[in-house]
Automatic annotation (TrEMBL):
PANTHER family the record matches: PROTEASE M1 ZINC METALLOPROTEASE, PUROMYCIN-SENSITIVE AMINOPEPTIDASE-RELATED
Protein name in the entry: Zincin
Coiled-coil zones: none
Membrane-spanning segments: 220-242
InterPro entries named in the record: Aminopeptidase_N-like_N, Aminopeptidase_N-like_N_sf, Peptidase_M1_aminopeptidases, Peptidase_M1_dom, Peptidase_M4/M1_CTD_sf
Biological process per Gene Ontology, one example term: proteolysis
Any Pfam family matching the protein: Peptidase_M1
Source organism, top-level taxon: Eukaryota
All residue ranges annotated as the Aminopeptidase N-like N-terminal domain in the record: 3-83
GO molecular function terms attached to this record: metalloaminopeptidase activity; peptide binding; zinc ion binding
Residue ranges constituting the Peptidase M1 membrane alanine aminopeptidase domain according to the UniProt record: 123-200
GO cellular component, one term: cytoplasm
Length: 247
């Protein structure tokens, strides 16, 4: 999590929200790991030990062999450093697609998590598919990215983070046990997803000029998340009362 000025700890950059750039991310990890970033994968292959393009890398890291792989991602749109993200791990994912009302795009949606908890991510995925089209219609701004992933992390500095195209969040904020989840747990997931997806859609993060403008964006996203959570709660309550009445 790089907000607001911690990207400089990961890679050399002008680490200020007002300064935008495109990012070409390449990850090299073991072949049994799953690599993800802000953009979709453009190329993934086993590490080629004799490829001239990688001789310098091989010299710097002699242990690289065909048990490692290279994952290259599409170039990102211009954006601030604090919303760059990449991760690698033993992840599994569930996925769906949603057709957006203004752009007409069909956007792939995924939630990544480890195998032991991925079954608890369905509610977050389903709600993300509901709220993304709503925001595009509400702001009258086409969603600017070709995909939207969510990564569930065991630990994170904040509850969740609005990395562009790759939302990250704690297990407590994004997972719902289908056998045990109650209304309060559902409300927490709804608020988190509504908040983070709002950042994907509106211009605060696209046009962020300073740390103070980031605070404005967080406040607005929190308001939206709370309003949508309240709406979802009353919809759930109305359905529950109707079911009780008819039974």
């Amino acid at each position: 999590m790089y907000q607001a000025i911690n990207a400089r700890c990961a890679f050399p950059c002008w680490d200020e929200p007002a300064l935008k750039a495109t990012f070409d991310v390449t990850l090299i990890f073991k072949t049994d790991m799953v690599n993800i970033s802000n953009s979709a994968v453009v190329l993934e292959k086993a590490f080629p030990p004799n490829d001239q393009d990688y001789l310098d890398l091989k010299e710097a890291f002699p242990t690289l062999n065909d048990k490692w792989k290279i994952t290259k991602f599409h170039r990102t749109p211009k954006m601030s450093t604090y919303i760059v993200a990449f991760a690698s791990g033993p992840f599994e994912y569930i996925e769906s697609k949603v057709k957006l009302p203004i752009s007409g795009m069909e956007v792939p949606l995924r939630v990544y998590a480890t195998a032991d908890i991925i079954h608890q991510a369905q509610f977050a995925l389903d709600f993300k598919a509901q709220v993304l089209p709503l925001y595009e219609q509400l702001f009258d701004v086409p969603y600017p990215l070709p995909k939207l992933d969510t990564l569930v992390a065991a630990d994170l500095d904040a509850g969740a983070m609005e990395n562009w195209g790759l939302i990250t969040g704690r297990t407590s904020e994004l997972l719902l046990d289908p056998m045990k989840g109650d209304t309060i747990a559902k409300k927490s997931v709804i608020e988190t997803q509504a908040h983070e997806v709002a950042h994907m859609s509106f211009v605060f993060d696209i046009l962020a000029f300073s740390v103070s403008s980031l605070v404005d964006g967080v406040c607005f996203a929190t308001l939206l998340g709370s309003l949508i959570a309240v709406g979802e709660f009353y919809f759930f309550l109305a359905n529950l009362l109707a079911t009780m009445y008819h039974s």
